[in-house]
Amino acid sequence: MPSPRRSVEGRPLGVSASSSSSSGSPGSPAHGGGGSSRFEFQSLLSSRATGVDPACARLRASESPVHRRSSFPLAAAGPSQAPPPPLPEEDRMDLNPSFLGIALRSLLAIDLWLSKKLGVCAGESSSWGSVRPLMKLLEISGHGIPWLVGTLYCLCRSDSWAGREVLMNLLFALLLDLLLVALIKGLVRRRRPAHNQMDMFVTLSVDKYSFPSGHATRAALMSRFILNHLVLAIPLRVLVVLWAFVLGLSRVMLGRHNVTDVAFGFFLGYMQYSIVDYCWLSPHNAPVLFLLWSQQ
Ligand SMILES: CC(C)=CCC/C(C)=C/CC/C(C)=C/CC/C(C)=C/COP(=O)(O)O
């Protein structure tokens, strides 16, 4: 049955890396036994040198997941027998899936299954539908607009240089976050889960895509920023971390995101803070910015 083509490093799977021949000569890759027949040949030679039973060596060669399919017919065929007819190319490729491909597909399947299971507030009629208004309130607490408006307001009201410096960097962090999330969403273009209701408060056009979660990036970025620049009592610090975690979880519960969107969002937000910290704006390295602002 025809199946999708897959390749490793741009080469069709099942083709020996060292082979340049594409002709149908016996034992050549195109003959369905290329890499594996060479593999088996080598194992037979080495078994002679080491005194290992050739049958065992053949068995070991055929145990390799990469070589199993195509080495078996050659192993069974005697030296006088003609090589088997070439397998259809698609067939060989399908029988040699890469480990990374399998791992990614499995992760994706688990992600979709878990996200659907956790999407208990995706609609009013869902099992936890009554909690949906609370989840939507949390959604607003991590939205870009309240954070931007709040930061701009505090920046206008601030009368100390130290305060202005922190707020200026907070504004930079929020804008960087919006930019990076929009860029990645536009590049990856992963659709939101099918059970999501698109009833979000003010969105950008890229917000029809779900990877990564903008709320999760903001939650990680803002909580790291607050913990590093505000002196807070321990219970409040715990509350900040809890807010970030629950906000991320609420994205999956509302059906807005898959688990991997939120997990990557947390990672991205965490890294964004490192960028902000590294490029920290101050009256020393960005005097123009601070002078302009003080003249407002
Ligand atoms: C005020 C200044 C200086 C600039 C404005 C910048 C700007 C374009 C703001 C837009 C804010 C906005 C609408 C953000 C969208 C937030 C959102 C809905 C993200 C989606 O989150 P997700 O978790 O569902 O991915």
From TrEMBL:
Transmembrane segments: 166-188, 225-250, 262-281
InterPro entries the UniProt entry points to: PAP2/HPO, PAP2/HPO_sf
Localization: Endoplasmic reticulum membrane; Nucleus inner membrane
Gene Ontology biological process terms from the UniProt entry: farnesyl diphosphate catabolic process; geranyl diphosphate metabolic process; geranylgeranyl diphosphate catabolic process; phospholipid dephosphorylation; positive regulation of neutrophil activation
Biased composition (Low complexity): 16-29
Residue ranges constituting the Phosphatidic acid phosphatase type 2/haloperoxidase domain according to the UniProt record: 165-277
Record-listed E.C. numbers: 3.6.1.68
Bilayer topology annotation: Multi-pass membrane protein
Family to which this protein belongs: Belongs to the PA-phosphatase related phosphoesterase family.
Protein name, per record: Polyisoprenoid diphosphate/phosphate phosphohydrolase PLPP6
Provenance organism: Cebus imitator (Panamanian white-faced capuchin)
